[in-house]
């Protein structure tokens, strides 16, 4: 049996029990001092014989005799202990951080000490009498004076139109042919064209004039838009068309005209003309004022007489008056 246990122990890797040391036999005291022979040396122990390997049945019997129970390997236990202590340390750190955070928030900043009052000696301020300053209100800006009309009958570009007429029509005062079509401004105006427009633009289409139609007499005429028109009676037997700049304008008489009838009945009918719109008339001179008249016959004893009026001759709008004459149209038949 001991040999079987030894073999199982070696197979299981367990440490073998140490053999006791061999006994030492001391020689008798008398033998050390005498001359007798020494005792014979002890015999060497017989050589140990290696035990035979245990059989499988012996190994199973030996395992059944070893007590069994739950056990934890050493390495797995160490790992679990490290995890547990790491978790405990993390909880301690988090708790310490939160405690420090709330502790710092609860600490109030120190209250600064109240400032000490400084006694400043009063300063005697002597009042200074400042005399009042009279500030005059700014003077109103002078109103711009209206531009005076050009000098009478002045023609800067020598195109037949006075400077006043060119301002009214919007043409170039320094250019005889404002639209550069080969015709002077005065020729275009006499033919009822716009001197400043691209030919063939009519002066009526340009909006510089408008057509006035008499409500009962059966005739019409072009009048400047910038001029005013007024009737002296309810029947509109006399119309005054004037400019506010100088008061110059045209008086239109409708009815019995002695100057027209006298000249037509005599041997000399005066300067006859036909307008661009087909009306037939003639020129005379008013006996009362010496102003030129242009007569158009409406019936046996009724005429239209156009009179050029100006307070101070020479006249500023002579070519414009001729344009008005050329624009007359008569719709009533001429009765001999």
What does this 3D model show about the protein?
- By secondary structure, this protein is α+β, with helices and mostly antiparallel strands.
- Among the domains are: 149-207, no CATH class; 210-330, 3-Layer(aba) Sandwich (Protein Transport Mog1p, Chain A), CATH 3.40.1000.
- Helix content is 26%, strand content 15%.
- Strand 3 (228-231) and strand 4 form a beta hairpin.
- The model is unreliable at 29-36 (pLDDT under 50).
Provide the descriptors you would attach to this structure in a database record:
Protein Transport Mog1p, Chain A, 336 residues, alpha+beta, 8 helices, elongated, three-stranded antiparallel beta sheet
Identify the overall geometry: elongated
Ends: how far apart?
183 Å
Task: Evaluate the radius of gyration.
Answer: 73 Å
Contiguous uncertain segments of 5+ residues = 29-36
Report the major sheet. Answer: 7 strands, antiparallel
Got a strand count? 10
User: Briefly, what CATH class of the domain at 210-330?
Assistant: Alpha Beta
How much strand content do the residues show?
15-25%
